[in-house]
Design brief:
about 90 residues; single chain; mainly alpha; about 65% helix
């Protein structure tokens, strides 16, 4: 799907002064918001931006978007480890 975004000329000029092209930065903003809102998985974000695993990890770190991992996830993993390891 192709999406067209209309920006006021003054804002477009202001944004174009920052490093990187505007369409890529918009795509990255959509990807990071999709990840933060849990609408996109890490793999989908990677595919959307054309990044490999390590580039995706670095991108998420640079944007302060960390793995969705709750206390309940940790407790479930701990129980699974105990079951497997017999501890």
């Amino acid at each position: 799907m192709q999406v067209t975004v209309q920006l006021p000329e003054k804002i477009a000029r202001q944004l174009s002064r920052a490093p990187g092209d505007i369409p890529r930065r918009i795509l990255e903003a959509v990807a990071i918001e999709g990840y933060r809102s849990q609408q996109l998985s890490c793999g989908q974000l990677s595919e959307l931006l054309g990044l490999n695993f390590w580039e995706t990890e670095a991108f998420l770190k640079d944007h302060g978007a960390y793995l969705h991992y709750s206390k309940e996830d940790l407790e479930q993993d701990a129980r699974a480890n105990e079951k497997v390891l017999g501890s």
